[in-house]
Amino acid sequence: MAANLEYYKQQAIKILYDKNKLSEILTKVEAKTQVKREYLALGTVVLISLYLVFGYGAQLICNVIGFIYPAYCSIKALESTKKEDDTRWLTYWVVFALFSVCEFFSDLLLSWFPFYWLAKCVFLVWCFLPVAWNGSDLIYNRVIRPFFIKHEREIDSAMSKVHDKINELADNATRVAADAVKHD
Fold first, then answer.
1. Residue 41 to residue 157: CA distance in whole angstroms
2. Helix or strand holding residue 17 (H, E)
3. Could you name the domain of life of the organism this protein comes from (predicted)?
């Protein structure tokens, strides 16, 4: 257990010192405050965690954390020429979407638990962390992909029916709109 904690601590420190925008910001704040970046990051995490437990608008803060950084990284991935980053962020969004659908049905019950927004935020951060043991890869490879492969034919058949129905509805709507324009 102690070895695992030390490993995670080293990974967090590595993220704080890697050459990235976060590191640039931390360097400036560290220089102005004379407080080590590890303590700045820990203090920020503690404050956000407390706010997610006790603060007003915790749901919004949680959803912003789970959306803003991944959306930014997804746009950067789309603009890069590498396929790996596209796959990584597409995997995150598939897991995020599945979680959002499941949450829709359980949100009324779960949101009453005092640590729900903190737990959800930790889960979403785990899903987008830039590490090998990130949650979206684990959930996709162990849950979503096996289920999809097992039921691919049924899913394709259902999606084909939905596609046909949407095309039929679009044709009907176009026809009704054209008739309405003719009569005016």
1. 49
2. helix 2-17
3. Eukaryota
Domain parsing of the chain, residue ranges: 2-136, 151-184
What are the CA-CA distances from residue 131 to residues 10, 106, 137, 149, 163 (Å)?
12, 29, 10, 26, 37
First to last CA, the chain: 75
Model pTM? Answer: 0.75
> Cβ of 10: how many Cβ atoms within 10 Å?
10
Say if residues 76 and 130 touch (Cβ distance below 8 Å).
Answer: no
HSE on the CB side for 176, CA within 13 Å? 6
Quick one: pLDDT at residue 142?
95
Which residues are CB-contacts of 69 (< 8 A; sequence separation ≥ 6)?
Answer: 128
Residues 4-61 pLDDT 10s: 677 777 777 777 777 767 778 888 888 898 988 888 888 888 998 888 888 888 889 9
Residue with tokens 């935020």: 121
